[in-house]
Amino acid sequence: MTETTTDDTAGSTDVRIERDGAIATVIIDRPKALNALSPAVLTALAEAFGALAAEGAAVRGVILVGAGGRAFVAGADIRELAGFTPEQGEATALLGHRLAAVIEALPAPVIACVDGFALGGGLELALACDFIYATDASGFGQPEVRLGLIPGFGGTVRLPRAIGLARAKELIYSGRRIGIDEAVEIGLVVRRFPDRDALLAGARETLGLVAQNAAPAVGLAKRVLVTATGTPTATASGLEVEGFRDAFRTDDMHEGVAAFLEKREPVFTGS
């Protein structure tokens, strides 16, 4: 294992990045506020993922986690929202959507590691990641209607894609919370773990497998999966063909094919 390093992001102590070789861990560190997403935190997270994107193939995977053990993210910062004008509400929603777009644009896969509550904006943040791992102590929900609001960071878009339209409507309209059993049953959570240590170890194991593969191919696959989801079949098929074509432009594709034919392990360079 390589040495772990820690960086504060954009001068914010609420968001930090830890590095273990090619694997980065982005930590939302506001445990007293249950890691609530204030505009400042949304901005710091977008800057963190932007910085990781700038490293290119040096980053092979990202773990997103909340500090404290009680919550991944309990939602938006309600104390700040209480005094917002409609224009400020719109601006905050745009920050949430900008963050989700930065996460989805990152070529490396991002695993949301949920330990505790992922509610409202917290669930929306997790949905922007490639998939969700969670502990047995986790709970999920979109309770915005109980505050007279609706999901504002992409919940009405990504939750139906994750669990189907009818289930998403039921959760959003009712505002009810679900536990880990139901979250796994409906496909919201990909894998469950007994505790935080096992959760993070499982995420690192998965990203270790990803890191053995060609970085450009993983990035192209993510690009197609993100952009094609929800589009008509003909459009999605065209996006896949473009991605397949672009793979032939990479050195790693030629190395991977040559290694297969020569019955040896490939030596990928990320180019």
3D structure, described in words:
- The protein is of the alpha/beta class.
- It has 2 domains: 4-211, 2-enoyl-CoA Hydratase, Chain A, domain 1 (Alpha-Beta Complex), CATH 3.90.226.10; 215-261.
- It has 11 helices and 11 strands.
- The protein has helices at residues 39-54, 78-81, 86-105, 121-128, 155-163, 165-174, 180-185, 196-211, 215-228, 233-247, 251-261, and strands spanning 4-9, 12-20, 23-28, 61-66, 71-73, 110-114, 117-119, 131-135, 139-141, 177-179, 191-193.
- It has a 7-stranded mixed sheet, with helices on both faces. Strands 5-7-9-10 form a 4-stranded mixed sheet.
- Strand 3, helix 1 and strand 4 (61-66) form a beta-alpha-beta unit.
- The longest helix is centred in the middle third of the chain and has 20 residues, at 86-105.
- The mean pLDDT is 94.
- Pfam families: ECH_1 (PF00378).
- It comes from Agromyces humatus.
- InterPro entries: ClpP/crotonase-like_dom_sf, Enoyl-CoA_hyd/isom_CS, Enoyl-CoA_hydra/iso, Enoyl-CoA_hydra_C.
CATH class designation of the largest domain: Alpha Beta
Instruction: Report, as a whole number of angstroms, the end-to-end distance.
Output: 24 Å
According to CATH, the fold-level topology of the largest domain is 2-enoyl-CoA Hydratase, Chain A, domain 1
CATH superfamily of the largest domain: 2-enoyl-CoA Hydratase, Chain A, domain 1
Structural class: alpha/beta
* SSE pattern, N- to C-terminal: EEEHEEHHEEHEEHHEHEHHHH
> Which whole number gives the mean pLDDT?
94
Strand order of the largest sheet: 1-2-3-4-6-8-11
| Major sheet summary line | 7 strands, mixed
Number of helices: 11
Report the CATH architecture of the largest domain.
Answer: Alpha-Beta Complex
